[in-house]
């Protein structure tokens, strides 16, 4: 699990893909999606501290945040049978499965206010899917397994842990304010090697 | 020591000061120096994990690195009597004393090759000084105390832990290649609160 350079290279490439570019959701998703697919194609880089399931609830470990809040990268760790409430994001998000498998279910508002479950996607290891206000922003994610941990790597077009968003009661459509925070007080040091910024002059 | 928002605010402001700007050393130093002075004016934000001295050598804990290697922020922790070898940087650097006091001594090449000690500066808590290839890039830094820990916060115009630079034998001027790395495998999570990047549309 020591190939942390894969995460570093992803963060560098994803930052380059947004830095100095207009904040265009479709363009950002198109640029970053293949980078995430490449990152999760190998499961040999996530440090063990960011892969520990919680006893009762899923955990979300921040791996990297852009200081200008244009990007965050999060390890979601699902213990057996764990799942999110119905929730939204309010920024674009990409979900890539690193280990195990997950079930993502979309929800849509009905005229009466209740939320109706739409498509259910089973995401296997290596699969990537997207959410956003434009594409459909309300869903649940659940571990596909009730006997093992699954892990997905999520990338968002903002600092998702600090976004004021909502969880929903699907029966009524009622919203509750939701700021997720993160499960961790320290993030991986990606920078012991690699790019230096030194100019050769 | 829980006012970590001070470090977050510094990182955001320093990133804004360089993002989209030409890599002009004098301009970057002029913009970031007062931000560092403000950061070190209060000693209530550095998490204890990044303030632990080593038994034999000084430690350098990465606090933040820009993925595009335009900036790094490092906590240097000096046990009693600890000091650096004579070394250079090859990028601009700012040194601000957070706790205790330090002695910085500049070196200059003599015609015969040996390095001559120049000015010695005693930096008290709250003081900021600069180094760079343009201003004078070779120095030593030492804890001013032999009975207590001192800590300084350094900011560099690159990822200093990965820069290929040199340590010197001052008697002969002989150089040895030097890549410092960092003492820590995890950096503080600054992003549990604060800027979100969410657009209000
Ligand atoms: Fe989600
Ligand atoms: Fe130095
Ligand atoms: Mg670019």
From TrEMBL, chains A, B:
<dbReference type="InterPro" id="IPR011051">
    <property type="entry name" value="RmlC_Cupin_sf"/>
</dbReference>
<keyword id="KW-0408">Iron</keyword>
<keyword id="KW-0479">Metal-binding</keyword>
<keyword id="KW-0223">Dioxygenase</keyword>
<dbReference type="InterPro" id="IPR010300">
    <property type="entry name" value="CDO_1"/>
</dbReference>
<feature type="binding site">
    <location>
        <position position="139"/>
    </location>
    <ligand>
        <name>Fe cation</name>
    </ligand>
</feature>
<feature type="binding site">
    <location>
        <position position="89"/>
    </location>
    <ligand>
        <name>Fe cation</name>
    </ligand>
</feature>
<dbReference type="GO" id="GO:0008198">
    <property type="term" value="F:ferrous iron binding"/>
</dbReference>
<comment type="similarity">
    <text>Belongs to the cysteine dioxygenase family.</text>
</comment>
<dbReference type="InterPro" id="IPR014710">
    <property type="entry name" value="RmlC-like_jellyroll"/>
</dbReference>
<feature type="binding site">
    <location>
        <position position="87"/>
    </location>
    <ligand>
        <name>Fe cation</name>
    </ligand>
</feature>
<keyword id="KW-0560">Oxidoreductase</keyword>
<protein>
    <submittedName>
        <fullName>Cysteine dioxygenase type I</fullName>
    </submittedName>
</protein>
<dbReference type="GO" id="GO:0016702">
    <property type="term" value="F:oxidoreductase activity, acting on single donors with incorporation of molecular oxygen, incorporation of two atoms of oxygen"/>
</dbReference>
């Amino acid at each position: 699990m020591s190939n942390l350079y894969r995460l570093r290279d992803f963060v560098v490439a994803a930052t380059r893909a947004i830095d100095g570019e207009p904040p265009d959701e479709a363009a950002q998703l198109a640029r970053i999606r293949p980078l995430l697919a490449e990152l999760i194609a190998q499961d040999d880089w996530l440090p063990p501290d960011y892969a520990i399931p919680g006893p009762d609830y899923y955990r979300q470990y921040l791996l990297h945040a852009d200081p200008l809040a244009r990007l965050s990268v999060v390890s979601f760790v699902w213990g057996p049978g764990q799942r999110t409430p119905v929730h939204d994001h309010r920024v674009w998000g990409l979900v890539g499965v690193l280990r195990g498998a997950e079930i993502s279910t979309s929800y849509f508002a009905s005229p009466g206010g209740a939320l109706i479950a739409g498509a259910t996607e089973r995401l296997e290891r290596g699969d990537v899917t997207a959410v956003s206000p434009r594409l459909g922003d309300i869903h649940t994610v659940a571990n596909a397994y009730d006997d093992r941990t699954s892990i997905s790597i999520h990338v968002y077009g903002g600092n998702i842990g600090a976004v004021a968003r909502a969880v929903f009661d699907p029966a009524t459509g009622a919203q509750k304010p939701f700021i997720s925070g993160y499960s961790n007080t320290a993030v991986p040091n990606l920078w012991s090697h690699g790019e230096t910024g030194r100019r050769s002059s």
